[in-house]
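In this supplementary section we document a worked example of the pipeline. Step one takes a protein sequence of length 173 as its only input; no multiple sequence alignment statistics are reported here. Step two produces a three-dimensional model, which step three serialises into structure tokens for compact storage. The input and output of this example are shown verbatim.
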Amino acid sequence: MIKIKKFKKGFTLLEILIYISVLAIVFVAVSSFLTWSTKLSAKATAIREATDNTRRAMEIMTYEIRGAKSVYTPTASPSQMSLVTVRYLPAGEISTFIDFYLCGTAICLKKESQDPVAITSDSVEVDNLVFTQISTTTPSIQIQLSVGYKTSSAKLEYQASVDATSTASLRNY
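The serialised model returned by step three reads:
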């Protein structure tokens, strides 16, 4: 008589354990990658926001300095600068004033007879703003600026700070 062995269908305990182990390793690798990419994206956003605001504020301030007729930086407040600009009208030329200063944690631009306008966004805070007159023969102004990304988190991936220095000379002098 011939005996026929019947094979049981299914998985052994060892095969199930190996499957679960491989699945767990793949899951940990994928979740680690997703966590890393989320942190990297948050850091890139913080750096981009701080950099863009710093660049924009510097461009606005240097543009206005270059077009000014004269400049006044009060010695009592190095974080404020006043510019005298000239507008030409058919009746003649009119002098107007432009001020840059810190208003809270933003840089404000105030043109004569207008309300102040923040030139930095609410997502950043200006840590330092210093105007220094570095030349009196041809007035030149050095601007030192520190802008940080505003976050309530203490985690490093949500923090970014940009320090910038620029110099602009009056062209209409």
